[in-house]
């Protein structure tokens, strides 16, 4: 049985495990004040070429989204997201739990369309009665999106311009950021992301770590007493080293990009296999998640040998399923998939 | 430099690191549905001799407290805690953040006094106007307490009786439970805890794990759709294996109790060292945290060689400081402490 | 200057003012425990022919929505509403503030379409991964809707069937319920509403009262300790008499229906005036709110003599505006409008 | 039967009823934008001699407390209150419901002791570990207190000094402010209150209105988009006139002070009656609430003729009960009380 179920089916990249083992006996201070957290922060700032950035580590993506949104919005504000955004659909209402509304926009291939955003905000402020409405205070987008798609630099800059014209914060959820940056279709670097966005995070959990997301505040905009706000949300890790050591490893010798690049390489090979056998793609994804249309009988047969994820019912006879690659995907896995496809 | 700063200064117990390394390449399902989580649940149920218990894993103590309290209280209810309880003082208002009041009781040595609790609840219901007040719906206690002290079985049963008489849930925060159970003064076993309490957690973070707390619902009282409630609070780990593997290791061959017992042994030796040199204890603690009174000059000198925690100012010339042992404390550490004390 | 700006531009119906004045010196107990609240409850139960109904009074509509939704949803649940629903758009995020997600459905003329609802819920439960999503726990609808439109009995029953099949609560926001029940197009009585819905409220603020909404729980489903839950949300009035006396007056001698019927009569006459002069309606509304398309120049001229509400920009040259009638609308007002329209 | 049960047993002062009746047919804009709200704001600013004050109207005391505290605290902060403060005990956890902790201080006669406050804050900042604790961001006090007692100007200034030294907001709950200002023991005017406090409210509900509290922000510190924040909390009244007209009446010809002064006069006479007959007071209250110790048998007898409130059990044979005066208390009421006391 070979698995493409998700990009978090295996443990951590061996280099991360090695660092955790080597530092295991060191006595370190808690709550993210240790030297590895410090070193990881420094390396991330350097990788972003943003020397004033504030970098903080959180355990997971939903937690990062909830903490960032809740601490950066003003009382009268909500966060704009695509209707298919992770915060809109798959976080069990975590953003609303913090008291904040997600203002859902129609999407195209999982992406917010700059013009749709511009129209929404313009309409909002055109209507004199907006004191009874939630003010748009932030734009949330995921890059890659939940459909594996990417924003172009031009799109991201157009969205940022709109945000800044209206005093909104641009927040990029980078749970799978590595796969976006190393995609063959990417026209952005990590520095571009850091320059354009007001806050974003570099996903660890889905890019080789056991857990962890590195939040980057790029504009001297880290909320005051952020550690207390994190604690208040039950999100402060006592052994903060667990996050610091992992990100220190990920940002040493480009490991983060190597992991991501490997997964992209595997995904491209996987695409060729599917295409070669005449399978249709539900969406054109340039990253590590591929959405393939299967006939239902085909799907049932394939399940015996290959693990993958249900995505959605397409029609009575077809289903969309997801195949994901990661640091742990091997050529042998691809050969097994190819064989199983018959 | 030797450190007794806390029980979370080192990484994980080597046996845990070994299990994480050995299972690292296995493909496992996410969100706590993997086989190691399953195995850990089974072993914990067996250790508690509570075969119907529901066991769920959360990342940290404040998170566990916030999730448990918020999902188990009814709308009109709050949680009773000692004025010195962790939820009362040192969680940055995490319980209130979820919308629930902490009803603080005066304490004795960090413990809720059963008679004080009984009086509080009786008074509450004696007053006909309680519809404008927060109903006491749960009792939170930590065992060991924040002062390292322990409830006796008789005390815990008296508190439980009071809870059940008034329909309240008894919740025990066991962030350091192992040290309580292996203390020389303990008259309770894990089975007693599971029998008496309605819900409790077995702390991992402070007892040898990298992170993780195992929440045990003992009375078929796990909130419905608990996974969704956990996700809603940003507390669901994608790689749930990280918690399952660690607790599976901790509950194999009594590792949890061995770790705890070692720390207690080291703490007892440390007490002898302090006592032998004439130091006063601020409180009589039978567990792994020791609270020692130092003259301020003495304290400054000692800081050069030994790391410990500030606890509180006693008077102008004296300070209470905390020395904690853990799985990583060695005899060599104790000798270094002894030497440094002069 | 004549005003059709809203249905809350005037004070209370004179009969209500009379009752407030007559009872003003009576000593009454607070918090909704007085005899007028009791009498109003009894009369509302009788009017609904639902003798077991629990009736509670709240001050305003957003408050009623927020309290009802927050106290009736389970932790994993959210509330379904039309994308144009009051809770979705015009309550400044009050539902999300209580921690609950509004699940927005596409609408037709402001109404939830029964088949769209059925499809949404069926899809939700078809998807095996719904533990990461907000469960649909309640359907919120307004009747009349924000566009003045009405559900038919058949539609409401279809929605109720769907709710009950999946264990969802059906909640009807009746801020303008009287106008719905007395509309010429209504095929439902108050008894039908009470029989079909699980909870609803009878709006006072917009139907002749100074303030106040009467919440009716029809299925022995009033949340336990509801008074405490109301207090906890800052929504409990000390002089509860203010609400009780008003609703007692409204449900004496059918005043509620007389007020509503008068406004409908005035609205129908107003429609004739607009139609007679060739104005277009943006939507076909059978209740007291009429949405008329005006050329922008026309609109500016009309503003000098008549007050009305901006609704939305239709195109560059046309605007949709709202004219509302109420208990205080007179034939003289209509003549003034007619004259102003030229 | 004569009633001293509370200061909200009767309707509104006749002058308020008269104003409501006289303005009833006027067409006014909603949500607090009408001319009576404007006029009331202006009169309150003048009465406070604080021409830049922002004045906003809310419906009730708990609502005012919850809205003010939630909109003025920063994320890491909580509000300090006396252990007997209204927000601490009798608001069903309304402050915690908004996510904010009430930091309870020991009290003396219902009052925060300036030195105790100073010590608390100094201790907080002395402890280097306060990042895990809720920061004291505001001091809440009620004047008169829940025990009818008053702060002296010196005490209030000492508290204010402490607040401002540490960047905390001083918030005074004036639900019964009129009775405080007209007490024979008061050494403060409304101008003093406005000068010393950062925000406070002038209670209407308990001082002659049907409902309503006038919140006064004295230091250009009204939260931005406050109307939206009020709406978000379900606290915005559609017919805002109801509050504006009442406060306009209360601040015309000193009505607010006349009402208060009358109640104080009645309370002083009542005190003489009790004292003359040898009854003991539980506390020395200089305002409109009197706390009298009754033997339980005496209490049962008195209940037949006089309504009063249970306060607390003193011992097995004695109970503390409360007698309150208000605008509606008459000399005849006092004679009836005297007669009933025998």
UniProtKB/TrEMBL annotation, chains A, B, C, D:
InterPro entries: ArAA_b-elim_lyase/Thr_aldolase, PyrdxlP-dep_Trfase, PyrdxlP-dep_Trfase_major, PyrdxlP-dep_Trfase_small. Its cofactor is pyridoxal 5'-phosphate. Gene3D superfamilies: Aspartate Aminotransferase, domain 1 (3.90.1150.10), Type I PLP-dependent aspartate aminotransferase-like (Major domain) (3.40.640.10). Residues 4-280 form the Aromatic amino acid beta-eliminating lyase/threonine aldolase domain. Keywords: Aminotransferase, Pyridoxal phosphate, Transferase. Pfam families: Beta_elim_lyase. It comes from the Bacteria. One of its GO terms (molecular function) is lyase activity. GO terms for biological process: amino acid metabolic process. Belongs to the threonine aldolase family. This is Aminotransferase class V-fold PLP-dependent enzyme. It comes from Enterocloster asparagiformis.
């Amino acid at each position: 049985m070979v698995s493409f179920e998700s990009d978090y089916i295996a443990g951590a990249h061996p280099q991360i495990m090695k660092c955790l083992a080597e530092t295991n006996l060191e006595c370190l201070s808690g709550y993210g004040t240790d030297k590895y957290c410090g070193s990881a922060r420094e390396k991330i700032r350097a990788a972003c070429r943003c020397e004033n950035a504030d970098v903080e580590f959180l355990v997971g993506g939903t937690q990062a989204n909830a903490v960032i949104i809740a601490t950066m919005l003003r009382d009268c504000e909500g966060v704009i997201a695509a209707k298919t955004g992770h915060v809109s659909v798959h976080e069990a209402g975590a953003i609303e739990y913090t008291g904040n509304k997600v203002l859902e926009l129609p999407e195209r291939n999982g992406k917010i369309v700059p013009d749709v955003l511009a129209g929404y905000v313009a309409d909002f402020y055109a209507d004199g009665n907006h004191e009874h409405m939630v003010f748009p205070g932030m734009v949330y987008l995921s890059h890659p999106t939940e459909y594996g798609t990417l924003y172009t630099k031009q799109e991201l800059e157009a969205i940022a311009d709109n945000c800044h014209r209206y005093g909104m914060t641009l927040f990029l959820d980078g749970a799978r950021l590595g796969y976006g940056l190393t995609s063959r279709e990417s026209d952005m670097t990590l520095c571009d992301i850091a320059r354009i966005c007001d806050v974003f995070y570099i996903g660890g959990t889905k890019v080789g770590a056991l857990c962890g997301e590195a939040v980057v505040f790029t504009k001297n905009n880290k909320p005051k007493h952020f550690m207390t706000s994190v604690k208040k949300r039950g999100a402060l890790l006592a052994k903060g080293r667990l996050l610091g050591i992992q990100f220190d490893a990920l940002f040493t010798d480009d490991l983060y990009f190597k992991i991501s690049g490997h997964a992209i390489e595997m995904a491209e090979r996987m695409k060729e296999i599917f295409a070669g056998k005449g399978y249709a793609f539900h969406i054109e994804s340039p990253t590590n998640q591929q959405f393939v249309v299967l006939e239902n009988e085909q799907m049932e047969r394939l399940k015996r040998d290959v693990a993958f994820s249900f995505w959605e019912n397409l029609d009575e006879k077809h289903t969309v399923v997801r195949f994901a690659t990661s640091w742990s995907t091997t050529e042998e896995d691809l050969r097994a998939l190819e064989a199983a496809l018959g």
